Sequence to fold (861 residues):
Amino acid sequence: MRQFKDNLLRVLIWLSAFLSVAVLVMIVGFIFYKGIGLINFNFIFGDYSPDGGGGIWPMIVTTIYTVLISLVIATPIGILAAVYLQEYAKQGRLVRLIRFATESLTGIPSIIYGLFGAVFFVTTLKLGMSILAASLTLTIIVLPVIIRTTEEALKTVPRSYREGSLALGTTKLQTLYKVILPSSMPGILSGIILSVGRIVGESAAIFLTAGTVAAMPDGILSSARTLTVHAYLVTQESGDIELAAAVGIVLIVLILAINLSATYISKKFNKATNK
Amino acid sequence: MSIPTTNKQAEEIGKANKRKYMLERASQRVFLLCALLSVITLLLIIGFVFYKGAHPFVAEGYSFIDFIFGSDWVPSEDKFGIFPMIVASIYATIGALIIGVPIGLFTAIFLAEIASERLAKIISPAVQLLAGIPSVLYGVFGLAIIVPFLQDTFGLVKGQSLIAVILVLAIMMLPTIVTVAETAIRAVPQTYREGSLALGVSQIGTIFKVIVPAAKSGIMTAIVLGLGRAIGETMAVILVAGNSLIVPTSLTDSVRPLTTNIALEMGYAFGTHQEMLFATGIVLFSFILILNFVLAKISAKGGS
Amino acid sequence: MISLKKVKMGLIMLSILTVLTACTNNNNNNNETQDSNGSNATVSISGSTSVGPLAEKLAAKYTEKDNTKIEINQIGSSAGITNAISGVSEIGMSSRDLKEEERANGLNEVVIAYDGIVVVTHPSNKVKDLTMEQIKQIFTGEVTNWKELGGDDLEIVVVSREDGSGSRDAFQEIVDYSSGELIRNSIIASGNGNIKTTVANNKHAVGFISFEYIDESISTIDINGVEATAENVLQEKYSLSRPFLFIYKEGQLTDAGQLFIDFILSEEGQLIAAEAGAIPVK
Fold:
């Protein structure tokens, strides 16, 4: 009987694993199969054309803009906030409040961030539908991610490092910058890279704050369209699955590149710190 | 930094120390401010969304009960009831959990405990990569593959349906669940396995009696994260839900979950209609808080 | 010294950003033709997703001649009208007539083209001709099987646009039923393309799309024996049509905006509209 149960579970495990892998392979396969025909130099680097056949360069640039602006704002704030929570704050009501807020922010669906961005940044702060408004909204979305991963990274720094540094007569601040932050760098970086993924993949919040203008943005106050929003719109408006899949390929390659560079950087850092 | 040698220098050092102290104090303030920013934004979000969403009920005399339990949503005729959407959201989420959680967990177990290291080293990063794929692409896949599949193979009258939503969401949460649960299972100390195996328990027995319970909190996190992704998902769902305004009675009915309602009409809405979409957002928000709370309770109970 | 590092990092990131901005600006200038010294005005337009594609095509042709940037946000007719009223956009696009309360805000409207709406079905569907009354019965759920209309014994799946869509408003007004009467279990698709894909993949389905989107993946329905063509709309034989409007607030229109509208109404602009599948203003 036990033997039977064991075998049954084993079969279920194998079956599930097979199913997961199969489905995921199918999705990537589908996207590449459908979209690869459209991928060429002009598609990626060409300007958008409403007649079809144009490229997606404006969307790529818009995506880069949103990623950079969001990170420039969110990274320092997120790291400093994590430093406060881990290194300075005494456990108490305030810290609990901050933790609660951060955690709640993680749980909020992006469409609600979109609503908030639309009424706060777009309307109240009069930024209009713009890359800046979307980036600020995204900043809030990725802030908890950066705080959390940085906190985790700070936790892994051995106590002895801190004590050793402080024993040498450095101030807390010096210890922080010279010892603690450098040794938690890989963790912090992986947090930032997770955020890049989140920003690139975001659609609902950007849709409501950056608009859908399919043209090269003039600056960060232009309304524009990111890659993901483009993939959504071509599916929705023109019903063009192939085009959406082609944009999907670009997105997947982008995310693959981000992940690989993350692994590479953290490996390099690990080596450097281990020496 | 030099080591103090004479008394003359002592004073200067004192000054320098003071400066350092000030810097310490100032930077601590800055750190605190950054940390408080998440509290401030949360308050702003809640403030704005609630202010907008509560307005029709407080100032315009709409009934909140009618809003929650009303089954008519016809904005152009001033009818706002989101009961069908609440039901749709609940069904879709539960359905996705029923399919996605076991498959995801079993896959995680497979990768962490059963698969050879070489196989796991290929599959795990691939699954991680899939967690990063924009959800819209899952929606495109759903629209182009799952919807026609449901129509052709199962003879559904319309492929855009509750079951299509459930499948897309289940697939979408798979990578998250697998990745997080795998990490949790791998973190269980080797001694647990050895101890159990030494007692003559089979490998499968060890996995389900020792390792999974030991990794429970991590597994719970995996489920919560997957759930969060499912409930909050919008754009992928719009493409496959059908967005009909009926209370679903079967898996083949087309549905409109809460998120979809907001994204679908936000562009068009103004005035009361727009405020009602914010109110929909509040309901969605509360919904997520409750679910997280319940799950936290369950995991706490299981732990004791 | 330590915070310097931070500052440095920030500076590096900022400079990357600036370089990027510079790059894109260069790109822009390269794409636009000769007169880089010309006016660099921006005309912001938002509204109907049906008018949007046509407006994009017109804008693309227009910017080839004139160094004006035209921003087009496809967010739906009602939102476009709201934006024109509130001043968020200079021009709003609408694919339906203005409502009374909207007109009260001192709005000017310009018809830039006409568009037909066509009822579409799966290519395998045998029903090719319907009366207006039958269409109403389908969309309000009085008729639920194709065999009642001379087709196969298949359940009817109604596909409609979302509440607030100009196409839906115009369609409902002409066919004469209200949003509340629309059959509840209809699929709601949020774009012409989505309706087309849905109908093209489902032999039960019926929906309505703009003329611009007609292709061989779907079958079009004649109304009272009149085919859905631009010609029939112009001769007022085919009644499912609506205007494409540009809307602006009295006194809000800039010179650049006026020039763009003039271009659209010129012979060249109307030719582009015709090529795009819309019906020129006569």
Remarks:
- Strands of chain B lie at 73-74, 79-80.
- Chain B touches chain A through 84 residues (CB under 8 Å).
